[in-house]
Design goal:
Helices cover about 60% and strands about 0% of the residues. It is mainly alpha-helical. Keywords: Membrane, Transmembrane, Transmembrane helix.
């Protein structure tokens, strides 16, 4: 990480000024926005459920219902759930969208998400050994991580993770804490016991399975299997979309990693700098930003995680000017360009780096 020519005090002042100005504008417009999105999501979900019961008339009805339900689930997870759980709307004092009480339509327990994502990932972004979101314990995404033979097929692992992403997220904290494996780490981060983590995992996962694969299919009566398959299809579409957007924001080729030593006694300006180097953006129309939960502006989200996300697009112009002023790379591009960069990174790190190859030859 090249820090030589950066005035971190000025960088902090410039970015904090953008944050403060945005907070001064926060108010009724933000409340109306999130309530409109919630209304849209609920109408889409109800309509989708009704359409699924129409397979007596045509198979196009459950297919349309599946696609509309996937849309509703994406909105619920990305633009509503993820942003609400970051506390972006706590100031409204609305108990239905408060980060302390909100639960979302996904297998992951909201409390687990806030511990592993909100605190750990957003605090220690891309610090190898501290940010367990970097590769999710399954993928080698940097030469900083030791190559293992299993990394040779990590492209297949990535595809499976994308299809089952909600379950990967749900299990992430338990896997990180070695709950089922029984090999406790000395630097365990969770304050909860194994029993508490298991109880919350199985409770939320059980409710989600019952709702999607038992309750709604049973309501359909003779159309049980049609609705079951439509629900499964909607979840798979949502998982693929969510994982793809998240990977585009975190694992493009130019995203940088950091060592723990580099980040000791880090100032706020240095933390800002790390967030900018460790994230990447996506360009696109307004509907695209909404469907990504505005994680298309991942740089701004990492800088200002508690700002209402629909403001990120406007903030991005100002953040990019600050980046240019201080000579900091601002990684942004189209969806296909950035996703291509993600796939290249996964493939490149599937194989050992030159140092590893040299060591293996010497050992042989």
């Amino acid at each position: 990480m090249n820090n030589q020519n950066i005035n971190f005090t000025q960088l902090e002042a410039d970015l904090s000024a953008i944050r403060d100005h945005t907070l001064q504008q926060r108010g009724a417009d933000d409340a109306r926005y999130i309530r409109r999105i919630i209304c849209l999501q609920r109408v889409a979900e109800i309509t989708a459920r009704v359409l699924m019961f129409g397979c007596f008339f045509s198979l196009w009805f459950p297919l349309a219902g599946m696609l509309l339900l996937a849309f509703a689930k994406i909105l619920d997870n990305m633009e509503i759930g993820h942003n609400v759980l970051h506390g972006q709307y706590d100031w409204m004092n609305d108990p239905n969208i408060n980060s302390r009480t909100y639960e979302w339509d996904i297998a992951s327990d909201a409390g687990s998400w806030k511990r592993i994502h909100n605190h750990e990932h957003h605090t220690y972004t891309n610090i190898i050994g501290k940010d367990r979101d970097f590769g999710y314990g399954l993928l080698r995404m940097s030469d900083d991580l030791k190559w293992r033979p299993k990394n040779s097929w990590q492209f297949i692992t990535y595809l499976n993770l994308s299809l089952l992403f909600e379950w990967g997220v749900a299990y992430h904290e338990l896997a990180a804490e070695r709950v089922f494996i029984g090999k406790k780490k000395a630097n365990r981060t969770s304050a909860l016991s194994d029993g508490e983590l298991k109880r919350m995992f199985f409770s939320k996962a059980g409710r989600q399975i019952f709702k999607d694969y038992v309750f709604f299919p049973l309501l359909a009566g003779p159309m049980f299997f049609t609705v079951l398959l439509a629900n499964l299809g909607a979840n798979l579409i949502r998982n693929l979309w969510t994982s793809t957007i998240i990977f585009c924001g975190h694992f493009t080729e130019d995203v940088q990693t950091f060592t723990e030593e580099e980040c000791v006694n880090e100032s706020k300006g240095q933390w800002y700098h790390r967030q900018m180097l460790g994230s990447s953006n996506l360009t696109g129309p307004r509907w695209f930003h909404i469907m990504t939960g505005h994680l298309s502006c991942q740089i701004e989200h990492h800088l200002f995680p508690d700002i209402p996300a629909h403001r990120y697009v406007a903030m991005a112009d100002e953040v990019q000017k600050v980046a240019q002023k201080h000579g900091i790379p601002y990684n942004t591009g189209s969806f296909f360009r950035q996703y291509g960069a993600v796939l290249k990174r996964i493939w490149r790190h599937s194989w050992p780096d030159k140092t590893t190859i040299k060591k293996n030859r010497q050992a042989g």
